[in-house]
C-alpha cells in the first residue's frame, strides 16, 4: 500500500470528508494536524504550494485537496493510485 498523508485541521469540513472517503476505502493514512504543530503548516505549504487544508499526498505525489481527491475517485483514477 502506498503512504497516504493528510495535512488537516480538526474542524475543517473538507478534512473530515477526506478522512471519511479514505476510511470507506479501508485505506490507512498519516494525519498531520497543522494547528497542533506550526512547523508542519510551513512544511505543508513548502511541499504543496498551497495554504488550505486538507492537502493530500499519495507517496510523494500531491493529489491536492478533498475536491481533487473526490474527482479522482469519480473518474476511477483514485483506486489505482491507492493500489486498490
TrEMBL record:
SUPFAM superfamilies noted in UniProt: Thioredoxin-like
Q: Which domain of life is it from?
A: Bacteria
Which Gene3D superfamilies does this entry report, sorted A to Z? Glutaredoxin
Ranges for domain GST N-terminal: 2-84
Q: Which family does it belong to?
A: Belongs to the glutaredoxin family.
What does the record give as the function of this protein?
Has a glutathione-disulfide oxidoreductase activity in the presence of NADPH and glutathione reductase. Reduces low molecular weight disulfides and proteins.
**Protein's name in the database:** Glutaredoxin
Q: What is the lineage of its organism?
A: Bacteria, Pseudomonadati, Pseudomonadota, Gammaproteobacteria, Chromatiales
Amino acid at each position: 500500500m502506498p503512504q497516504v498523508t493528510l495535512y488537516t485541521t480538526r474542524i475543517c469540513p473538507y478534512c473530515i470528508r477526506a478522512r471519511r472517503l479514505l476510511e470507506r476505502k479501508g485505506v490507512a493514512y498519516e494525519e498531520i494536524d497543522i494547528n497542533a504543530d506550526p512547523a508542519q503548516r510551513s512544511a505543508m505549504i513548502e511541499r504543496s504550494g498551497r495554504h488550505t487544508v486538507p492537502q493530500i499526498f499519495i507517496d510523494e505525489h500531491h493529489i491536492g485537496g478533498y475536491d481533487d481527491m473526490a474527482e479522482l475517485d469519480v473518474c476511477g483514477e483514485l483506486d489505482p493510485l491507492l493500489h486498490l
